[in-house]
Amino acid sequence: MRKIIIVVFILVFSVGFVSKNTVNTEETKKTKGSIAVYLEESGNKTSNSDVALKLIKAGETADGKYVLTGELKTCGIDLNELETADKMQKAAESIFREASTKKISGIIKHTDSSGYVKFENLENGIYLLAAEDINKYDNISPALIAVPVFDEESSETNGMKYDIVVYPKHWPVTAAKTGDNSNCELYMSGLAVIVFIPLIKKAKTGG
Prior knowledge:
Protein name: Gram-positive pilin subunit D1 N-terminal domain-containing protein
Shape: globular
Strand content: 25-35%
Number of strands: 17
Distance between the termini: 31 Å
CATH class: Mainly Beta
Number of domains: 1
Order of helices and strands: EEHHEEEHEEEEEEEEEEEE
Organism: Thomasclavelia ramosa
CATH superfamily: Immunoglobulins
InterPro entries: Ig-like_fold
Largest sheet: 5 strands, antiparallel
CATH architecture: Sandwich
Structural class: mainly beta
């Protein structure tokens, strides 16, 4: 399966939906996904190798909607209402803080010499990606990532893409500023990368 990078112009938010019945098919549930992460070179005497990244399953589907899992439910965030980039950024920050406070475990992997790491065999759901140890790299913004994402042109299972590629937003450690929300965006070649897209839409009456 080819990898997918979802890009939208800055200030433009793209939302993809699939029907309740499509998401809940047994075939879709059984298909595993992956998240490939590339840490871009930063310069400034930093290194993108041997950076520890943690992946936590933050949400799953229930009755045709996304719901937070386990101890993260206390965040009070509705994953189905993240309709703008700003809401998505704030949700990622809140979930990250909750996961850190409660010391929620996840999958931890280290980037290779080129700044690449891949999380495989992932169940359907919403994942929180965050830095566990930046080592000699920059600060990294937490991000919410959906597996799978919808692509109406896809010939794969029900038009769903399971192999996701992420280029996390990063900024110099010395340049970090308290309350700077711009640090929570993800960029690639001047474009904002929206890696979490709400996929659930309530079935229409009579649909």
